[in-house]
Amino acid sequence: MKFFKKPQLIFTLLISAVLSLSTPLVNAQSVQIKDAFARATNPGQSVGGGYLTIDNPNDTADKLIGVTFAKASSVQIHEMKMEGDRMMMRDIGSLSIPAKSKVELKPGGYHLMLMGLKEPLNDGDVISISLQFEKAGKVDVKMPVKALPQSHMH
Ligand SMILES: [Cu+2]
Q1: Of 4-8, 35-39, 117-121, 148-152, which gets the smallest average pLDDT?
Q2: What distance in angstroms lies between residue 114's CA and the mean position of ligand 1's atoms?
Q3: 134: CA distance to ligand 1 center in Å?
Q4: How many A from CA of 80 to the centre of ligand 1?
Q5: How far is the CA of 76 from the centre of ligand 1 (A)?
Q6: What are the pLDDT digits (tens) for 74-100?
Q7: Is 61 inside any structural domain?
Q8: 85: CA distance to ligand 1 center in Å?
């Protein structure tokens, strides 16, 4: 019977190794991304807008702390709002996603600003961007590019 001991032990060790590796994945906070799209750019335009809805189903708040897009030199998180009679836009650096709530990034509100585009965003393209959350970590998002009427600020 001694012959069986060792393989059994190895098997048990393997199983527990797999379980301990997968446990953090099961417990990790995750967020859901919906309705992602980017605005098609006009000829000569090197800045683009990205929009999406972030759904945080968890009991704790999360925060969008960074965004990357390979075909842009940087991506900023912008807030757009009326200041007096003027629509103003500013880089807010990060965006809090409260527990059990959704935050919409949409034209006229919060949005992603794709800075220094290396190529145009054409209607019908699908771009891949990466979102970095404080707790949920890296989330990759596919964004279909759509031609939309230009907003006055972009
Ligand atoms: Cu902007």
Answers
A1: 4-8
A2: 8
A3: 22
A4: 7
A5: 8
A6: 999 999 988 899 989 999 999 999 999
A7: yes
A8: 18
Structural domains of the chain, count? 1
What is the reported pTM? 0.79
* CATH, residue 76: 2.60.40.1890
DSSP per residue over the chain, as a string? -HHHHHHHHHHHHHHHHHHHHHHHHHHS---EEEEEEEEPPPTT---EEEEEEEEE-SSS-EEEEEEE-TTEEEEEEEEEEEETTEEEEEE-S-EEE-TTEEEEE-TTSSEEEEEEESS---TT-EEEEEEEETTTEEEEEEEEEE--PPPS--
The answer to whether position 89 is within a domain reads yes
Domain interval for residue 124: 32-146
In a domain, 141, yes or no: yes
Tell me if 9 is assigned to some domain.
no
79 Cα–ligand 1 center, Å: 7
- Whole-number Å distance, alpha carbon 52 to ligand 1 midpoint, is 14
